[in-house]
Design a protein that fits this description.
This protein is an alpha+beta fold and 774 residues long. The protein has twelve helices and 35 strands. The strands form eight sheets. Strands 4, 5, 6, 7, 9, 10, 12 and 15 form an eight-stranded antiparallel beta sheet that branches. Strands 2, 3, 16, 17, 18, 19 and 20 form a seven-stranded mixed beta sheet that branches. Strands 29-1-21-22-30 form a five-stranded mixed beta sheet, with no helix packed on it. It starts with 11 loop residues before the first helix and ends with a helix.
């Protein structure tokens, strides 16, 4: 039997574990959320997806001359302007985020990225220091604080501007080879100094990140995170400061570099001869690291970056300057105010870097006065009449009259921010991830799996484009609202339509270019074609073209996308992780594109096709174990399947069979071994058949015949009434006894031969069956 081939399936236990995991996953998918594991939303264009942050008032002579600050002469409502600016800004920021670190067509890197933050350490005057936190914020200048000294640190620089990449503790920035901080203390008792770091926060994974500060020997500190860290940062709007030492930020998209600015102030007291090195550390923790339980500390060096490597003028900032959107709404007359008609001044997109820096520098210079209301008074000392609209947006009246009114005395400046989801469609998992967030993936707009549905969302009192020369609506047709909707439904290039009345007659304008409409809520000056208040815009919803095919045996019915204008925290899926990659085909939708489903598919491929070392008891380790040989390895303990910790320590003389293979190869080996053994089985079974024929046709009939003859022959006394019962019969003679012994031996030999043959065959077949293994 030792010459039989080994048919054991070494990969059986790992395959069985995978099948169980896959079955559990499918069962959970079916049972979760009533079997509805994903929702599909098209986030509508809406003013709710755009917010404006009031940065305060500023004199027009300071802001208007700047090149990027330009007026758009057409009128619109504040919501209309928010829509127009927000859509452009959204597209621009998405493209800008994609360009960081990428090479241009000429081969140069557009915005080089390197780990670490820029920093500078400066000396502060004695008058700057105060042990009172509230006094400290404002006693270093008018009307500023320590923060003002970083605008031009050249006169008080201790450690010149540089880059620190060893950011596990921020104390590294204080390590100056010339030990200037200590020397200053020796020369002059009582030294105040400050350190500022600036750069961008971008972790490797999505989720919530908590910032905690340990100030060490420091006195005061601030952290600003987000767009306000560029030029609007003041003690009042800091996210982390002395009285608030923790701050949480949600990273929902892994392509975004978030601006961050950190400032630290230290004071070395009088009569300190050998001061200790100043210390300041920042701890960042998250639950987003895959495979980890509880909060995980993220090394600062892995999530802080500098973009670019240059500066512009006295305003210290990298060569990459993020384009922020600022705007102001100006009313030209009382009638315009009553009609909600405003001219919009804005920071244009795509302006040159020096222009952006100059603009930000002005805001940085005047931010204290803007945020404190210093410039709410005009040049005569009178309070400027700022009207407050229903949405709490301030407008600035134009002070002049006539055909060429003058600029407003003050601009009320707003920073505009947008929700990057606006105008896009997403697949959202209905089950939260380990961070309590909903995984969300963009439905790639370039894909062919989305088409227009025959239902719409209405935007009341939005007007179509009017020709500046004729005052008439372009491409208008006389038809009712129902006819207009039907006309749009019949075209796959129609994204929207307008309905309105002109002198009481129904009119219709349909899109035929898959375009985005103008979100205008004011009838253009000189228009003779639209009745006031009669116009509505209807934006078309989306749907999937067909069900998703995961495999030949699995079809997923995909629903029509629901439109949502809810960008608030009340939206069920407001806390989300925007994950990559985008959903680009129907085969990526639903369970087909689920990361767990994809991972299981990869695991299956790995088990089937990637070699690993498997052991006879079912354990396995990736790759080939040290000193492993086909079918034999010396080992002491084995890991549970799937744990990559090595085979354990060796014990001389103890052997466990192993095999370096994959499931396909292992199964093929088992089949081939089985086929080879089948040939051996065939030979053995032929012998069994021959023995059976010989037994049934020859030996057993001969035995039965002989037995019958002996039963009738008195010399054998099979009946037991002559030779075996000595009370009634005489003792056999020596000749009779010899004949009886000979015949008995002959019968016994024949019977033992038959029994032995049957036993060997049965044991052989049984051994072969048992040897086939699992």
């Amino acid at each position: 039997m030792s010459d039989l081939f080994d048919t054991t399936l070494y990969t059986h236990k790992r395959l069985n574990t995978f099948v169980q995991n896959y079955s559990n996953y499918i069962e959970n998918v079916i049972n979760s959320a009533g079997g509805d594991s994903y929702q599909y939303y098209n986030f509508q264009y809406s003013p709710n997806g755009i917010t404006i942050v009031d940065t305060g008032r500023i004199p027009n002579q300071e802001l208007y001359p700047l090149n990027p600050w330009i007026a758009n002469p057409t009128g619109n409502s504040t919501n209309g302007w928010k829509m127009e600016l927000g859509i452009s800004y959204n597209k621009y920021k998405y493209q800008e985020n994609q360009q960081i670190g990428l090479a241009s067509s000429g081969g140069n890197v557009l915005y080089p990225v390197q780990p670490g933050l820029q920093f500078v350490v400066i000396l502060l005057p004695d008058s700057a220091y105060s042990s009172n936190y509230n006094t400290f914020q404002y006693n270093a200048g008018l009307p500023g604080s320590f923060i003002d000294y970083f605008a031009d640190p050249s006169s008080g620089t201790i450690i010149s501007q540089g880059l620190t990449s060893a950011m596990d503790t921020y104390a590294d920035a204080f390590l100056d080879a010339s030990n200037q901080i200590s020397n200053l203390v020796i020369q002059k008792n009582g030294t105040a100094f400050g350190c500022e770091w600036f750069g961008y926060f971008k972790p490797n994974s999505l989720g919530n990140y908590v910032f905690n500060i340990s100030a060490g020997t420091g006195v005061y500190y601030y952290i600003w995170i987000g767009d306000k860290a560029i030029c609007e940062y003041t003690p009042k709007n800091a996210d982390v400061y002395n009285n608030n030492q923790s701050f949480t930020i949600n990273v929902a998209q892994n392509t975004t570099y978030c601006p961050i600015r950190i400032q630290y102030y230290g004071y070395i007291p009088i009569q300190t001869v050998t001061p200790s090195t100043p210390t300041f550390s920042l701890t960042i923790q998250t639950n987003s690291v895959a495979g980890q339980r509880g909060a995980v500390t993220v090394p600062v060096a892995e999530c802080m970056y500098t973009i670019g490597n240059g500066t512009y003028g006295a305003f210290a900032i990298q060569s990459y300057v993020p384009t922020l959107m600022y705007c102001a709404f100006v009313s030209g007359s009382v009638q315009d105010l009553q009609n909600g008609n405003f001219i919009c001044y804005q920071l244009l997109l795509g302006t040159s870097q020096p222009d952006l820096v100059a603009f930000y520098q002005v805001l940085n210079t005047y931010k204290y006065g803007m945020q404190s209301g210093v410039y709410d008074n005009d040049n005569s000392g009178l309070i400027v009449s700022f009207g407050e609209l229903p949405d709490n947006t301030y407008y600035t009246p134009i002070s002049g009259t006539g055909s060429t009114p003058s600029l407003p005395d003050r601009f009320s400046v707003y920073r505009l921010t947008t929700d990057l989801r606006m105008g896009n469609s997403f697949q959202i998992a209905t089950q939260k991830d380990s961070n309590g967030l909903y995984p969300m993936q963009l439905l790639d707009p370039s894909g062919t799996f989305l088409s227009y549905a025959d239902n719409y969302n209405e935007f009341i009192q939005y007007y179509p484009t009017v020709s500046a020369t004729t005052g008439q609506v372009e491409s208008a047709a006389q038809m009712s609202g129902d006819q207009c909707e039907e006309s749009c439904n019949n075209s796959q290039n129609c994204n929207y339509y307008f309905t309105y009345t002109a002198n009481g007659v129904d009119q219709c304008v349909t899109d035929n270019l898959n375009s985005i409409p103008d979100f205008n809520q004011v009838i253009p000056t000189g228009s003779t074609a639209i009745d006031a208040g009669s116009s509505s815009l209807f934006m078309r919803n989306l749907q999937f073209t067909q069900p998703a095919e995961c495999s030949p045996n699995q079809t997923i019915e995909v629903k029509t996308l629901d439109g949502t204008a809810n960008y608030s925290t009340s939206f069920k899926y407001a806390n989300y992780n925007w994950q990559n990659p985008n959903v680009s085909t129907l085969n990526n939708i639903g369970i087909c594109g689920d990361p767990k489903y994809i991972q299981l598919g990869n695991d299956a491929a790995q088990i089937l096709y990637q070699d690993a070392t498997y052991f006879h008891n079912g354990a396995w380790i990736p790759g080939q174990a040290p000193n492993a040989r086909e079918n034999m390895s010396t080992m002491a303990t084995l890991n549970e399947p799937g744990q990559d910790k090595g085979p354990g320590q060796t014990i001389p003389g103890q052997t466990i069979k192993s095999k370096y293979t994959d499931a396909i190869g292992d199964t093929a080996d088992g089949i081939r071994a089985g086929l080879a053994n089948e040939q051996k089985y065939a030979v053995l079974m032929k012998r069994v058949n021959n023995n059976y024929v010989d037994l049934s046709q020859n030996l057993i009939p001969d035995y039965l015949k002989l037995r019958a003859e002996m039963a009738e022959n008195v010399n054998y006394d099979f009946k037991g009434d002559e030779l075996l019962y000595f009370r009634n019969k005489p003792i056999p003679t020596l000749q009779q006894q010899s004949a009886m012994d000979t015949n008995q031996e002959y019968i016994t030999q024949n019977l033992l031969y038959i029994l032995g043959t049957l036993t060997v065959v049965i044991l052989l077949v049984l051994a072969l069956i048992l040897g086939s293994g699992e």
